[in-house]
Predict the structure.
Amino acid sequence: MFIYRVTGLFLRPMTTWEEIHKDEGNMLAAMVPALILGLIPAICGYIGTTQTGWTIGAGEPVRITEDSAATIAIMYYIIIQVAVFSVGWMVHWMAKTYGSNPSLPTCIRLAAYIPTPLFLVGFMQLNPVLWLNLVVGLPATAYTVFLLYTGIPTMMDISKDRGFVFSSAVLMVGMIGLVGMLAVTVFLWGIGFEPVLTM
């Protein structure tokens, strides 16, 4: 069922959102997509930064020590789960403003499926080359925004016009959250959680 939903978001997104909307379950069941798919970028990032590494110019590959990469991967996974739950909670909180009254698990399920393209593009972190990750990551980001704008009206049972405004509000909050996470990253690096590089 889970793999069927993930492939459906790429092959037939509108129908798949309707099927996801009919799903029932508790909070844990709603988080399953993020709990499973969130492992992809964390594990691939760990492998890519410790085994493959990246090069700057024609120099030797730069890698991160296994201990440092493990800490970063665990924090990365936890942040993904917190972000998904936070977006789901925020969608639930904002829904009444747009004439909807969904359950919290429905909102979390929406937030867990929306970033599916970004989770899957996490495989690219096996080869952590900045330009390659950008080339693949930008279309994945665009498709994630598409899923947001198509998923909100269906999952919230609202018109497309209200769904557009609601989706735009969610996107704005997501961007603010991203900037906040970057600030937290800088803070954590400043207090000693920076990556330890090896040459």
In short: The mean pLDDT is 93. Residues 28-53+60-191 form one domain.
